[in-house]
Design brief:
It is built from 13 helices and 19 strands. The chain has 459 residues and is α/β, with parallel strands linked by helices. The strands form three sheets. Strands 1, 2, 3, 4, 5, 16, 17, 18 and 19 form a nine-stranded mixed sheet that branches. Bound molecules: zinc ion. The site of zinc ion has 4 residues, from loops.
């Protein structure tokens, strides 16, 4: 296939050029006025952008959460991803306490088989692990390790475990990703709220204040500095947390930060509405001024990636809650948390380009290039150089797309962005040279995505 005359934008800049997709599913050539080969399909993409497929390094497909399960599996989730222009996802495996991480990895590998775009996996540890396990994961292509500073009952680990895993991961070319919130302090605030009879949805945000996110970011950066390690902070949500990242980066700590579209577009007041429970996510939605700071952090490079933390539920599952109670959840601590987003990320971040907050180059870097580089998918993913996988998005900046649930393909009946339109959407999406989405419709086949072992980092 030859994509003619598009505005090609990737790590090598922006230029009007042709892109040749080779029969082997890689980029064969990029340049002006390429001569057509016999039998080659030529597609005129004048006036559209041609960019590397999106890389979403934070998804949760198929995940059980208490008595319910997230509503997208790897098939429906990757179909939605493809339609929205994301051609690689990296999902989080969790090894719960007492579980063998490699057995958990095998479970996720099985769940992921129906995927329609390429995928990698991160590993979440919820307790101390021997260094051999980290080496085995890296050997299996799992080169990033998530640890939680929150959720003491289920997931949280102490600083000694974080520092041990940082050291061991660094020795093996791995990267630690951290959920930064002060879990102990949050537990106290939650207990106090429940004891005072404050059980409503808004308490979810009130008991997880931004200052406790910022304090955890500072602690994470200190641990990385002491371990001589890089650290990646997932779903940064607030201005104080961003300030803590900037402060650590300025003294030379290699702190990589991710944010998500929900923190750029949605605010705490959503939790007060009639469908407030459908806006529960962690960290919680903040007041609107935080989003202004996050956009600026994206433009300045303090924030490196935009991922989604895609973790959708249906309205009924949300109401039912994580505990099996007649009538559904009894208080805010029983509402399953997480939002859909894998389909809408590129469109929502593109709105920031239209608004002049970030550049086209920033959009490509935040959504494709940087996540590919930081998570060992580069140079196969995240760029359009010859030899890279032909994961290509033809982006139509003139296409208007509704973000209502029934206009999207994620397997949920609630859209946090209902009523909103974005102005820019994929016209054509290729995964390793195969057309997987065209004009907002999935046209691929199940189980054509491949597991991508990720490369160790070199320092
Ligand atoms: Zn997550």
């Amino acid at each position: 296939m030859l994509l003619r005359n598009g505005s090609v934008t990737d790590v090598d800049g922006s230029r009007v050029a042709d892109v040749r997709v080779g029969a082997d599913g890689t980029i064969a050539a990029v340049g002006p006025a390429l001569a057509a080969s016999p039998g080659e399909v030529e597609v005129d993409v004048t006036g559209r952008l041609v960019v590397p497929g999106g890389v979403d390094v934070h998804t949760h497909f198929h995940l059980p959460v208490g008595q319910v399960r997230v509503s997208d599996d790897f098939l429906s989730g990757t179909i939605a991803a493809a339609i929205g222009g994301t051609t690689t996802i990296v999902d989080y495996v969790t090894a719960y306490r007492g579980e063998d991480p490699l057995a958990a990895l095998a479970t996720w590998r099985r769940w992921a088989e129906p995927a329609v775009v390429d995928y990698g996996l991160h590993m979440t540890f919820t307790e101390a692990v021997p260094e051999r396990v980290i080496a085995d994961c890296v050997e299996a292509g799992v080169t990033s390790f998530k640890l939680y500073m929150a959720y003491p009952q289920l997931l949280q680990v102490d600083d000694d475990v974080i520092l041990d895993v940082m050291r061991a991961a660094t020795r093996h070319g791995g990267l630690v990703t951290l959920h930064c919130e002060n879990g102990g302090a949050i537990e106290a605030l939650r207990r106090q709220a429940l004891a005072a009879g404050r059980t409503g949805v808004l308490e979810h945000a009130a008991t997880r204040p931004a200052v406790l996110e910022a304090q955890a970011v500072t602690r994470a950066a200190a641990l990385a500095e002491a371990a001589d390690a890089s650290v990646y902070l997932v779903h940064l949500s607030s201005a104080p947390a961003l300030a803590a990242v900037r402060e650590a980066a300025e003294r030379g700590v290699d702190v990589l930060a991710e944010t998500c579209p929900q923190y750029l577009y949605l605010d705490t007041q959503r939790l007060a509405g009639p469908d407030g429970e459908s806006f529960v996510c962690t960290p919680p939605l903040r007041d609107p001024w935080h989003a202004e700071e996050l956009w600026e952090g994206m433009a300045r490079g303090t924030i490196h990636t935009v991922a989604t933390d895609h973790c959708p539920f249906t309205v009924d599952d949300r109401r039912a809650g994580t505990h099996d109670r007649p009538g559904g959840w009894a208080d805010f601590t029983e509402i399953p948390g997480g939002l859909p987003g894998v389909e809408t990320r590129l469109g929502l971040v593109w709105e920031g380009v239209s608004a002049g907050r970030i550049t086209v180059a920033d959009w490509v870097r935040l959504c494709a290039e940087a996540p590919a580089r930081e998570f060992g998918l580069w140079p196969a993913k995240g760029n359009l150089r010859p030899g890279a996988d032909a994961d290509v998005v033809v982006w139509d900046p003139a296409r208007e797309q509704s973000l209502d649930a029934d206009a999207l393909h994620m397997h949920t009946d609630h859209s946090p962005y209902a009523g909103m339109h974005v102005h820019g959407w994929p016209e054509l999406v290729l995964s390793r040279g195969r057309v997987v989405a065209r004009d907002g419709r999935f046209v691929g086949e199940p189980a054509t995505g491949r597991y991508r072992p990720r490369l160790p980092r070199s320092r």
